[in-house]
Amino acid sequence: xxxxxxxxxxxxxxxxxxxxxxxxxxxxxxxxxxxxxxxxxxxxxxxxxxxxxxxxxxxxxxxxxxxxxxxxxxxxxxxxxxxxxxxxxxxxxxxxxxxxxxxxxxxxxxxxxxxxxxxxxxxxxxxxxxxxxxxxxxxxxxxxxxxxxxxxxxxxxxxxxxxxxxxxxxxxxxxxxxxxxxxxxxxxxxxxxxxxxxxxxxxxxxxxxxxxxxxxxxxxxxxxxxxxxxxxxxxxxxxxxxxxxxxxxxxxxxxxxxxxxxxxxxx
Length: 267
Fold this sequence. Notes:
The protein is an alpha/beta fold. It is built from nine helices and six strands.
């Protein structure tokens, strides 16, 4: 029998591991087993794989002509041991992108890259609703959207090479974040103005913890679109761009792509 924890009422307000109780000097067995289960889920997320066939079909429904690309990390073990290779595109992927370079035609306003990162589970679960909302909002703003790119064994910086090859003005990288004990499936969005290889984190803005238990899809799309619009107007991103979006406006309007309604057909 374990002692009741006087702070247990706080568990109603957070998913943090608090008020676990105790048995003597140790955790009660249910709390210990719960910790071990969450730890196993986090480890599994790191080694999870993209559901490529399903994701490509979903991406095709949202925006035609998605591409499957690969970083220079040939497998998961290499990806985890060599972060630098996850930031670079393979030669075959560069060749694929060269065939799509816009040349004299209008340049792409927005490039969206989806990468597995450290939790393909997050991408499999949460990428589609965020993508749907972003494509709908980009179409409403009459931004020309590049083909969606799904990248295996990719890290955030790999998106810079993709967007630069496609000569896109704005970049969004949707990627699985490092799993935590309460969030093995957290999706992050990294945004860059005029991306190019060699940029580092101070050039990017981040919207993190996108998932129903964290930042829900619709407020996440609103936040991303706010930042992209500010980037476009001000011509900068990263530490020079402050997020001044009033929090009271989040979630007030409903995008058809996020509420189940049919999105409008772009002009």
